[in-house]
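Lab meeting prep.
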Amino acid sequence: MRTFREDFLWGGATAANQYEGAWDVDGKGPSVSDMCTNGSHTVPKRITPVFEDGTLYPSREATDFYHHYKEDIALAAEMGFKVFRMSINWTRIYPTGMEKEPNEAGLAFYDQVFDELNRYGIEPLVTISHYELPYGLVEAYNGWYGRECIDCFLRYCETIFERYQDKVKYWLTFNEINSGVMPMGAVLSLGTVKGYCGPVNAVPDEPQVRFQGLHHQFVASARAVKLAHEKYPQFKMGNMNIFATKYPATCNPDDVVKCQEEMRRMNWFTSDVHVRGYYPSYMERFFEEKKIKIHMEPGDEAVLREGTVDFYTFSYYMSSCETADLEKLEKSGGNIIGGVGNPYLRASDWGWQIDPKGLRYTLNEIYDRYQIPLMVVENGLGAYDKLEEDGSIHDGYRIDYLREHIAQMEEAVKDGVDLMGYTPWGCIDVVSASTGEMAKRYGFVYVDKYDDGTGDLGRRRKDSFYWYKKVIASNGKDLA
């Protein structure tokens, strides 16, 4: 019976914009994330074109990996990490995104990080762009709506590929690229928010702008993959999607068709382009009904075919249900996806429905479709963690969540899925991307940082730290 392979990549995941801090240190420029204020799960964070005095911008300091990377990597090594998912902050290399020459101080910082990981035998898994578009590109081109961003991105890729060719093997082009099919993706991923100031959940939606920007990201990703395959054959290039698993709310055929439509639009569209190398036929009707016209330059379709990825990665936190009955369509909370609640599932403190078996189902669906190696690069439970007087954090609820999901991953492997690794999200506490708060914690390591900006940034091991160390040491056999 199959189980996790011997070279399974156990580890954890982070992102520079939520973790690194040092937003204006050593030549770094501002990104879209640096222009976002804090919020909560009841009050949305805001984006502002200029900094407001007296307002907290949590990505400025985040949990300060920039000054704690040695300590944090040592903690990852203590847990036994085989892989560490991180991102490079684009504006640390090209402060506005438009410079002709890179910022050497930024490049040198990541040299130090990769060398430290190598010292412990930890493989870096690098996301090239993880929700940190240079704000200079927003002002100049309205983010990815401007085709000029493609060349800016390629210059950035050429720089980091050449610099780190002997230090990084695994690369992901864009984090959760399919967020661009949703209005909030204009802020998180596409940066099509020029001049906008206000709540991130109230950005004026322009589907034509969003999907044109998404096309430019497709071309940029494919060109980066093609470059890597031609010049750096040792690289393995992956995509990265939110997987928003959806079930029909009932067996009514109308609900089943509605669910199929949503699965295609949300989950399959962008990865069909990344893995198969062309726009799927089902999007033609969607574009026609939404009056969206994708402008392609000569050669775009050829580039998409030539720049397909080697492996597929995704985030998985929850599932939801879909119905065609508008009277029943009450949006449930969770990861900006919405849908109808599932009466068979319980929910987290933030309303995200917990569905471990949905991960097995999802892994099988993806692998059946694409037949390339898969990796779960985000999964976890955002929760309130209580710091006890003795400094301990008893997060048994997180252990329960992860245990159930890892068990279902093993079931998927037994089903025949080629699963290469697992990196739970926010392995060290980071700022929440969706709400901009610290109270929603995911990590195995607690960081002394709070929603009012206070805290000494001290690191403390949670109970889940010791549990995950045992899981890795046993290659997933000991989940007790």
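Slide two material, second protein:
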Amino acid sequence: METIGIGVIGCGGMGRSLANGAHAVEGIEVICVSDLQEELAKTLADNLNTKYTTDYHELLANDNIQAVLIASPPFLHAQMAVDAANAGKHVFSEKPMAPTLEDCDAMITAASENDTKLTIGLVCRYHATHSKVREIVHSGELGAPVNMMVHRIGGPWGGGNRVPWRLVREKSGGSLMEINAHEIDFMRWTCGDVSRVYGVGGQYIHEHTDYPDVVLASLNFKNGAVGLLHSSHAAAVGGYGGRVDCEKGSIYFPQIWGGDAAIQIKPFESEGRSIKISDIQVPPPVQQEIRVFIEAVRNDTPPLITGADGRAAVEIALAAYKSVEIGEPVALPL
């Protein structure tokens, strides 16, 4: 197996997760890591017994690096991805892809012009609950989906998560992108492309951000199904779960993970069944998303999750924000 050399740009929490995930995958060598904060870069490099730099351009100039994992704040993704593609490197960018469609398009164009791979870290596709729910829907056993509801709610940003860039939508994309890119992608991956978004919400609790801390986003899918995403930083009792109602029955997952979490599958005309989430065997999701990306690089095949997928999640979030602001449904494409 050919060993693929990679570089990691951004050594904060997500960068560390990606670097450690890559380090654990056979056939990958982490050649260099980079962060403007030298202490973060040096600590991660020491842990992985590799090199570090505070200038990612030095990393991109290394001929032993074939691909990069970008885990910087979202507003920096586009420039770094474009620079990487222009340097001939394949790009894995964390979600959200970028806070604007213009930046998403720049990333896609750079990858296309340089014949490099581009994928986005929508890791929930590799989690047990998300992948099993989607598998059941697409098996057709319950007929076509007619409704999908997902909630991911919690309290205000606190502790180490309350960093300045995260509180500004222009830099982070706000909650609908930085957090709910996963749920938006999950719903789109399960029910198909979205044709219209209607959002209601506002800023109720979190005084230090410039974006809504509660959004209820209603999605119209092109296949006729409808969906609802509940996004919130105003919940003292948090939660993460949902349901899919189909023509012949329902799939209910009140908890995505933890404890005795289970997926309930109930047809209208027969007995249902329950699948404990802990019994669903999947590879470690972060390792798997990197493994799949590197396999695409190694085999010169399209990435499983494309730049278009990342862009679609951003577009749906932008439509929801716009709908909240104007009080009317917003049609896609923007």
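Talking points for slide two:
The first strand starts at residue 4 and ends at 9.
The CA atoms of residues 79 and 107 lie 8 Å apart.
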